[in-house]
Design brief:
single chain; 7-stranded parallel beta sheet; about 300 residues; Rossmann fold; 11 helices
């Protein structure tokens, strides 16, 4: 039975992935610092093959014994997204970069590494904004810049696979409302409007459950996929912010979206991504943008950020 170490396993991706890994017959150890006080793995504590450690991936003495037992390492722990990294640049560098480099120092040549990176590394693409895995990387944010450095170091390891993830959406036990599709859908449900900066800027999207599925796919097809980088997104969801709002308005007809007359988005990403390489391995995405929006609307029946306020 393969033993998988998932760092940050109680996060948005991990809390979706860990139950599926257990159901597939793997032993799973999660290390997480539970910085968001999340209880997103409550539902797997009954499983005899599940182990959880409260710890910090930056602490070598915490990581080494866990790494020694692992056949596969999935490093999900990160401060994710440009705003959080801007708010805590020191934390971002030590978690997203330094801790991973420390881990790579101790990985054996036989251990398998499956790494989520980001297609935000493409920045603004070429004159057609079209990007494949071979396209030059032009990362804009600190988050993307450090992910690019990590990916280079990772791909020096013979048993690595890097997944350049599109912007993820969908419900998860450890929910993130700040991701673009999740955020705009939340605004549609509760505010009924959004003001758009650079509404024509395009990016690619992927459902959180399809992210989980691509990691499972890699475990099942590891020999043919290892040593490679793959974009992972929905090929029919290279959409602009305005087009995203049009999708949401099909589900929430009262939703109004307006172009901002002044100002610009600090996130200047604008690209169209090819997912042909991962699809050529036999991977098929299952969850459409519209299905994800419908799911989020259901989820937001249960969730409201109302810590301060009377409603």
């Amino acid at each position: 039975m393969k033993h998988i170490l998932v760092t940050g396993g109680a996060g948005y991706l991990g809390s979706t992935m860990v139950p599926e890994l257990l159901n597939a017959g793997y032993k799973v150890t999660v290390i997480d610092n539970f910085m968001f006080k999340q209880t997103s793995l409550n539902h797997v504590c009954h499983h005899p093959n599940f182990e959880v450690v409260k710890g910090d991936i930056r602490v070598e003495s915490a990581m080494l014994p866990l790494m020694k037992k692992a056949d596969v390492i999935i490093p999900l722990a990160a401060l994710v997204g440009a705003p959080l990294c801007t708010k805590d640049p020191v934390g971002a560098t030590t978690i997203n970069h330094d801790a991973i480099m420390m881990m790579l120092k101790h990985v054996s040549k036989d251990q398998i590494l499956l790494m989520p990176t980001t297609n935000s590394a493409y920045g603004t693409g070429d004159e057609n904004n079209y990007c494949t895995e071979e396209s030059p990387l032009r990362p804009i944010s600190q988050y993307a810049i450090e992910k690019v450095e990590i990916e280079k170091a990772f791909m020096d390891h013979p048993n690595s696979i890097s997944f350049r993830l599109a912007t993820v959406f969908g419900m998860s036990p450890r929910m993130r409302i700040d991701l673009l599709v999740n955020d705009f859908t939340y605004r549609a449900v509760y505010d009924r409007f959004v003001v758009l900066f650079e509404s024509q800027f395009k990016r690619n999207y992927i459902h959180v459950r399809d992210v989980m599925r691509v990691f499972m796919h890699a475990l099942n097809n590891y020999d043919t996929m290892k040593g490679q980088i793959y974009n992972v997104g929905l090929s029919d969801a290279n959409v602009s912010k305005k087009e995203l709002c049009e999708h949401i308005a099909k589900h929430v007809p009262e939703f109004v979206y307006l172009d901002a007359p002044v100002g610009k988005d600090p996130d200047q990403r604008n690209y169209i991504v090819s997912n042909a390489k991962i699809e050529a391995t036999g991977f098929k995405q299952q969850y459409s943008l519209d299905a994800g929006i419908a799911e989020l609307i259901k989820g937001y029946t249960m969730i409201r950020n109302s810590l301060y306020g009377n409603l």
